[in-house]
Amino acid sequence: MAAGSSTPLGNPNAVLTIPNIITVVRFLGTPLFVWLVLARHEYGWGVFVLAMMGCTDWIDGFVARKLNQTSQLGRIMDPLADRVALVAVIITMVLAGILPLWLLVLMLVPDVVLLAVTLYFFRGDADLKVSMVGKTRTALLMIGTPMLLLAKALDSNFTEVLAWVFLGVGMVLHVIAFLQYLRAVFAKHREIHLPASRGGRP
């Protein structure tokens, strides 16, 4: 289940739920992808693994809602699995010489800054609602990266150009989403702490 969803938690403290198991499977798909691309150079199978990981991302949220098995752990694990997978995929493709290093830097720097600010103000999860820009960003990057890998497997220039269109737009939205989340963190910090400080004044 995605972070910031308005769906009521079925059992907030639940751990061993079907959606959480599906999310763990998605985590396990990441090292499999790394092995296929870097050790075996099986780009076609790498695309297949990414496609399956994308399917589980949709399935775990669907199952959580249908079975009312949403939980606090799932709310944290689901977006974390997405970010870990996306960063690991990009690092792998940089090491394989498929993606340039600058794209990895542009991906990581905003995430590191946002994580640092969130930890400083909230010592952990700021419980921010996932924005539409953030969702679209993730979707575009998760489409563009396997498409670029597919272009490598098929030796297709058209597929490569189309993949870069997805990646380019996705990276622009990545920066916009970062600015939105950063502003939301500061706004939430002011909302929580400023009223208390004002209330304590004589």
What does this structure look like?
The structure is a single chain. The radius of gyration is 19 Å and the shape is globular. The protein has one domain (18-199): CDP-alcohol phosphotransferase transmembrane (TM) domain (Four Helix Bundle (Hemerythrin (Met), subunit A)), CATH 1.20.120.1760. Mean pLDDT is 82; it is low at 1-9. It has 6 helices and no strands. The termini are far apart. The protein is mainly α and 202 residues long.
Task: Chart the SSEs and their pairings.
Blueprint: H1 18-39, H2 43-66, H3 72-95, H4 101-122, H5 132-154, H6 157-199
Helix pairs in contact: 1-2, 1-3, 2-5, 3-4, 3-5, 4-6, 5-6
**And the CATH topology?**
Four Helix Bundle (Hemerythrin (Met), subunit A)
Which structural category fits the helices and strands?
mainly alpha
H and E string: HHHHHH
CATH class identity:
Mainly Alpha
Estimated share of beta-strand residues: under 5%
The gross shape turns out to be globular
Largest sheet, strands/sense/barrel: none
The low-confidence runs, each spanning 5 or more residues with pLDDT under 50, are: 1-9
In total, how many domains does the architecture comprise?
1
